[in-house]
Design brief:
This protein is an alpha+beta fold. 21% of the residues lie in helices and 32% in strands. The strands form 2 sheets. Strands 1, 4, 5, 6, 7, 8, 9 and 10 form an 8-stranded antiparallel sheet that branches. It has a two-stranded antiparallel ribbon with strand order 2-3.
Length: 234
């Protein structure tokens, strides 16, 4: 009898990718789908939702029930909005009617920790948007690790994380950390690591491999709330 897992495999085959690459694209840890397929176990609903969001050309009804056609008759992905909410908590965040979010130059601040500690410095401007979750600041994206969800030059707004116990696995974070004396700043999904005392940083771009870093190396973190993209410079 065909199961949801079999239909997930069909999507991966149809897209010409391996299950491991499929896991990266939907933001799942390595082995989440492959173990379920091999063991015949269930997967969390959030991964089904992630598949639907990343592959809108496939029928959600077919994926869940097996009924109907695999592909939608008229597949159309909604155009990417100028402002995209990236964090969808189970309990909705308290929204502010209108707030001015400071846009910072993180490169001028030297690192994210310094930026968090000195909120009145390195300000490039302010962003005023009504009816959005409370944010502590915003910075420009640098790099393509989250492409095409985020691309270099996009603006991301964040909420500071002051204790690691507040981290929600599977969410997207702005992270500053030290490794071998070098400091890194990146935007990644944060997942659990198989190694004790570590976390796994996962990119949306399948060309970037996941990496495990020690929790002790983290200097500062911010939960990404939304992004802004300039669709034209005219």
């Amino acid at each position: 009898m065909e199961t949801i897992l079999h239909r997930i495999q069909q999507i991966a085959i149809n897209e010409g990718i391996k299950i491991t690459a499929f896991e990266k694209i939907i933001g799942a840890s390595k082995g989440v789908l492959s173990r379920a397929i091999n063991n015949g176990t269930d997967i969390q609903a959030k991964w089904l939702q992630a598949i639907v969001e990343n592959y809108p050309q496939y029928s959600e009804a077919w994926l869940i029930t097996g009924k109907g056609s695999m592909l939608k008759e008229n597949p159309q992905k909604d155009p990417e909005p100028d402002i995209q909410i990236l964090h969808h908590p189970k309990v909705p965040d308290k929204k502010v009617e209108q707030q001015a979010i400071k846009l910072y130059d993180v490169a001028a601040a030297a690192n994210l920790r310094t930026l968090f500690d000195n909120k009145d410095q390195n300000i490039l401007g302010e962003i005023t948007i009504p009816d959005i979750p409370k944010c502590d600041g915003a910075v420009y994206v640098n790099g393509d690790s989250m492409y095409p969800l985020l691309k270099s030059g996009d603006i991301i707004a964040y909420k500071e994380i002051h204790t690691f116990s507040s981290v929600v696995y599977g969410e997207m974070y702005l992270i500053s950390f030290d490794l071998a004396g070098d400091e890194y700043l990146c935007v990644k999904y944060v997942n659990k690591s198989e190694e004790e005392g570590y976390i796994k940083l996962v990119s949306y771009n399948p060309h970037h491999q996941p990496m495990d870093i020690p929790v002790s190396s983290i200097n500062a973190m911010g939960l990404i709330k939304f992004s802004i993209r300039k669709n034209t410079m005219i």
